[in-house]
């Protein structure tokens, strides 16, 4: 049963990055299209992996003997293409409003790529950043969100996760977190979350006695 997020106060908010806070789609498509071509793979072979760490994608589509080289190559391509990356609506506003020590990013990017995209976008990022480099099992495993909650010093069941990808939402739910989904990369009917909104400009945030309260800008438009 979906939780009423506007009636719940949270200890912390954990944001996914790509597709939630920033739009890196053009760069991602360029890098992976070139990678697929170099590896003799049809582009459709890479569908369905949104939200999965790049290493996990490579392991799923290449034979074992080619995995290490494949991971190194996609890392190289993505790190050298950070053009056209922009902050999505409401993202910087959220970081300006939310308490610095109650916010984290948990992304499927590795650390160098996450930092490169944050810098390229101009995103006002929080201090806590969890990447695929920090965990053994990335999304859809719950590990990134569990580690983010640990670094924030809060119980994951007291956290709200903001995601744009189905696999990220699976990870958040497995961690015991409440879920807010944004319709920036995935159709609304494919997002299984407590609440689904267009993007972060559809919500605002306020202090609730040291906890975080979510408000809908337009309840009728954003109602699921």
TrEMBL record:
Catalytic class of the enzyme: hydrolase
Keywords: Hydrolase
EC number(s) recorded for this UniProt protein: 3.1.3.23
Annotated Pfam families: Hydrolase
Database matches in InterPro entries: HAD-like_sf, HAD-like_SPP, HAD-SF_hydro_IA, HAD_sf, PGP-like_dom2
TM annotation in the entry: none
Coiled coil: none
GO MF annotation, one: sugar-phosphatase activity
Keyword Oxidoreductase: no
UniProt key word Plastid: no
NCBIfam families from the UniProt entry: HAD-SF-IA-v3 (TIGR01509)
Name recorded for this polypeptide: Sugar-phosphatase
Organism of provenance: Microlunatus kandeliicorticis
Lineage: Bacteria, Bacillati, Actinomycetota, Actinomycetes, Propionibacteriales
């Amino acid at each position: 049963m979906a939780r009423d997020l506007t009636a719940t106060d949270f200890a912390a908010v954990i944001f996914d990055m790509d597709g939630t806070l920033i739009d890196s789609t053009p760069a991602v498509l360029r890098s992976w299209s070139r990678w697929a071509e170099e590896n003799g793979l049809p582009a459709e072979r890479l569908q369905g992996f949104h939200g999965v760490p790049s290493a996990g994608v490579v392991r799923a589509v290449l034979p074992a003997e080619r995995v290490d080289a494949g991971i190194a190559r996609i890392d190289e391509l993505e790190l050298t293409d950070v053009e056209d990356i922009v902050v999505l609506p409401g993202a910087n506003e959220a970081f300006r409003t939310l308490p610095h020590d109650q916010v984290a990013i948990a992304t499927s990017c590795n650390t160098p790529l996450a930092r490169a995209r944050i810098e390229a976008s101009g995103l006002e990022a929080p201090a806590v950043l969890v990447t695929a480099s920090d965990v053994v099992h990335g999304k859809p495993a719950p590990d990134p969100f569990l580690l983010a909650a640990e670094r924030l010093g809060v119980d994951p069941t007291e956290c709200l996760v903001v995601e744009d990808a189905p696999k990220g939402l699976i990870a958040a739910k497995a961690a015991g977190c409440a879920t807010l989904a944004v319709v920036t990369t995935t159709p609304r009917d494919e997002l299984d979350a407590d609440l689904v909104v267009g993007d972060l400009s559809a919500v605002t945030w306020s202090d609730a006695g040291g906890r975080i309260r979510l408000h809908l800008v337009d309840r009728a438009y954003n109602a699921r």
